[in-house]
Amino acid sequence: MPAIVIVGAQWGDEGKGKATDHLGSQVDYVVKFNGGNNAGHTVVIGQEDGSSEKYALHLLPSGILTPSCTPVIGNGVVVDIDVLFEEIEGLEARGIDTSRLKVSANAHVIADYNRTLDKVTERFLGSRRIGTTGRGIGPTYADKMNRIGIRVQDLFDEKILTAKVEGALELKSQILTKVYNRRAPDVQQTVEELLAHADRLAPYVCDTTLLLGQALDRDEVVLLEAGQATLLDVDHGTYPFVTSSSATAGGACTGSGIPPTRIDQVIAIAKAYTTRVGEGPFPTELHDESGDFLRNAGHEFGTTTGRPRRCGWFDTVITRYAARVNGVTDFVLTKLDTLTGLEQLPVAVAYDVDGVRHDEMPVNQSDFHHAKPIFEYLPGWTEDISGCRDFADLPKNAQDYVTFAEEHSGARISVVGVGPAREQAVVRHALR
Ligand code: GDP
Ligand code: IMO
Ligand code: MG
């Protein structure tokens, strides 16, 4: 049976959490394979009495909300143990059973010194800052690559953990004190902080690669859910304004231990317009009242940091790029309802870079910074579409918008989101 990958097509917050939840009951495992609590996925679930429950997930895979599926934190994730238990406690208090969770013994752990380094580095960078979430993500992945990281399995041997913390702090203490004028972290205190939840963590920890390989052998369905998105990927994104992990489909393999030959579907989530949090280039960004309209109508404020998201028009150069880099089989186009009421909808189809037309993503970073979108203009609609469930129910102009986006994005648009709730979707092709 197949492994399915869900990725973000743009700069994050496309609605990956909702898409995972939409598939939840049809899959056996949901695996988070990259990132950490920099992610923020909002999932809205309608209740029997007509009300709805809203969940904000950061570290836990969105599949935690589906009782029939096993949520897995893969080896490619960086885990803040305190945040993990805060989230577990928060969900348990709301009646969600989290006991099925599995955590990879090879996942890396975010130590307090890396949260500190994330924040002081950003301050030091000043106008060159990335606009990180300040959660210690970048420094923790840097430690992993430098081979001085702390892994989940290290938490079960105090001697090894102490030696590893000592090793990591040898250089970091110098940097923190001499470059950033901070106090040197204490080895013993750091070890104690990391060990605070070790006993509680132990029952969740296992060889998740083996677990998932055996699940696929038994014909069970594994969904690999990306945090962040294509343009935030450390290799394929708008470097250096990216996160520090592999958020594209390839990352699903390294971040879970599932081989590429077992993946046969890649679903990319794209918002019907574009948003970005943090710094970095964004060709279709709006600085006028249209941007304010999208931000307000789409409630574009970060789930993790509460920052207002930068908003702009839909950009098919980006979605085409995402289709190519991820091998997208299906797009889910979310938040079409947010565009309701706009008279005219510009959609970028190419860029102008200093008088030269680019139909594909410019390879050169400074060209992308200078890229001016070349728009085609589509007519808008005013009808409320949040109750539509069939493509034919959508106003003609909304149908044409979806068809245009599909023709220019390089893969079919299988589902269209028309509201935040689980059932608010128009399914054109069943995802499973
Ligand atoms: P993620 O990080 O990709 O999971 O996305 P976020 O949860 O950070 O942001 C997406 C936001 O859009 C959340 O508040 C969702 O509830 C909401 N959302 C998802 N799909 C739709 C949709 O089709 N229409 C509307 N109006 N909201 C949606
Ligand atoms: P989800 O999974 C949007 C952005 C940050 C910053 C850059 C690097 O909800 O789509 P980091 O803390 O990762 O080192 O910050 O990446 N960023 C996100 N933007 N959605 C996310 O996750 C993000 N995770 C990180 O704003 O620009
Ligand atoms: Mg998000």
CATH topology of the largest domain: Adenylosuccinate Synthetase, Chain A, domain 3
Number of domains: 2
Q: How many whole angstroms does the radius of gyration measure?
A: 22 Å
Supply the CATH architecture of the largest domain: Alpha-Beta Complex
Give a list of the ligands: guanosine-5'-diphosphate, 6-O-phosphoryl inosine monophosphate, magnesium ion
The CA-CA distance between the termini, in Å, is 12 Å
What fraction of the residues are assigned to beta strands by DSSP? Answer: 15-25%
Total helices: the number is 13
The named CATH superfamily of the largest domain? Adenylosuccinate Synthetase, subunit A, domain 3
Mean pLDDT equals: 96
Based on CA inertia axes, which overall geometry fits? globular
Taking the sheet with the most strands, its summary is: 10 strands, mixed
What is the helical fraction, as a range of percent?
Answer: 25-40%
> Strand order within the widest sheet?
9-7-5-2-10-1-11-15-19-20
> Which structural class do you get from the secondary structure elements?
alpha/beta
Text of the CATH class of the largest domain: Alpha Beta
Show unreliable segments: none
